[in-house]
Amino acid sequence: MGKIKVIGPQEANGEITISGSKNSALPILAATLLTDERIILNNIPNLADVNTMIEILENAGKKVTWQDSTLIIDTVSDINSILPYGPVRRMRASFNVLGPLTIRNKYAKVALPGGCSIGVRPVNFHLEGLKKLGIESQIEHGFTHSKYIGAPDKTHISLPFPSVGATEHLITTAVLLENTETILTNCAQEPEIIDLCNFLISMGAKIEGHGTSNIKIHGVKQLHGTEYTIIPDRIEAGTYAILGAVLGKEITLKNIIEDHLFSLLDIFEKIGINYKMKKNTLTIKGISKLELSPVDVETATFPGFPTDLQPQLMVLLSLIPGRSSVTENVFKTRFNHVDELNRMGAKIFVESNTAIITGVSKLSGAPLEATDLRASAALLIAALIADGETIINNVDHIFRGYERLFEKLENVGLKIEYYE
Ligand code: EPZ
After folding, report:
1. How much is the average pLDDT of 94-113?
2. 93 and 214 share a domain?
3. Same structural domain for residues 288 and 182?
4. What residues contact residue 71 under an 8 Å CB cut-off, 6+ apart?
5. Pair 46, 258: CB distance under 8 Å
């Protein structure tokens, strides 16, 4: 695992173009297993997790070719539904290949997905929902062994929690259950769900209600090839918006969809951050923290404030005079970044799933340990504003979610050194 060295404080000034959404690309790549016909995907970010998913598709019989940020996906052999342990184990979204493979081949063997340090990552909602769709699974030696025994004409699945991955997995499976009707309630409503459904509809799937908490799917016999362009990454955008607020002189973000960032922009309003939204461009002016107001924030499923921006926002709140709080309602223990920020002089106290933040005038550089993707991004923002040298160890997590990170930071005048 590599490390990053940063000497702060630094100031950001310039323009960043946001890449395609990681959390759209991953479920859409899994869904390409639903057809043997050619699929062309545009605006795909070249990230570690995307390349892991490509490795999984190649194990399953696909040939995947990069052309800039376009992927050409063809089928080069009979579909293989017995997948090697490594790639699926390495991350979370890979588990969503289980349903499509089982429906198409009648059986599959897929490793249980990787968890990560933001919390226990069970898949019980996935397996319970798949069972109602006629997929029986059992877990042995870290693998999920599944077989398709036939789906009922009509299935109603009510999710105990609006799980993004479970919603995506069940949609991606139900679309190919010919002549059946599946109704999902208490679904996730994230933009990435809408993107996945629009992709599936472009392949001939019959889906209604995507983007609401009730989705209806009419299964079809087969799905055809398509060309599709995925949405920009709202979490990458939010991360750079917070970076701009923390240390910006003025940064401009391009490829923004305002609807996807409402909850962050609403918090920026409450804090007093100076920003301007014009068409698909967001400009942030960093101003003195003394003029900003503390806030109380709760993470929630979309359209609430996203858990994936919680660590990054905490860096900004730690520099605002007064008392702020962040309550984490999605991954209740997602606070690994707190100890590291306190090492830099932040004053953050965690009680149950709420962090109480007392603003300080500055942070100071320190040796830090990164633990997961979004915590790494938070520590990088903190290092860039802190006085003195910071070394962030274990930092390769950050490449799972931020395409061309060093290039984009250099474009706004930020200097960081990376060591293998
Ligand atoms: C997706 O993860 C995202 N990943 C995560 O982004 C994001 O944090 C999360 O949704 C919440 O928005 C991708 O889209 C690839 P969940 P997912 O199922 O689907 C519990 C990032 O940084 N749960 O919505 O795994 C679960 O433990 C990543 O890009 C069950 O209990 O999240 C959690 O508490 C991190 N049983 C809650 O639901 C299940 O079967 C929400 O999880 C499934 C989930």
Report:
1. 95
2. yes
3. no
4. 29, 39, 40, 41, 44, 54, 64, 65
5. no
CATH number of the CATH domain containing 38 = 3.65.10.10
Phi and psi dihedrals of 82, rounded to 5? Answer: -110, 100
Q: How close is the Cα of 83 to the center of ligand 1, in Å?
A: 22
Ligand 1 within 6 A of 332 CB?
A: no
Burial bucket for residue 161 (CB in 10 Å: 0-12, 13-18, 19+): exposed
Q: Is residue 242 part of a domain?
A: yes
pLDDT recorded at residue 115: 59
Range of the domain at 121: 22-218
Q: Which of 116, 183, 194, 287 is catalytic?
A: 116
Average pLDDT for the chain: 96
Looking at the domain assignment, is residue 224 inside a domain? Answer: no
In degrees, to the nearest 5, what angle opens at C-alpha 105 toward C-alphas 73 and 169?
65
Pocket flag, ligand 1, residue 26 (CB < 6 Å) = yes
Q: What is the pLDDT of residues 232-264, one digit of tens each?
A: 999 999 999 999 999 878 999 999 999 999 999
Q: pTM here?
A: 0.97
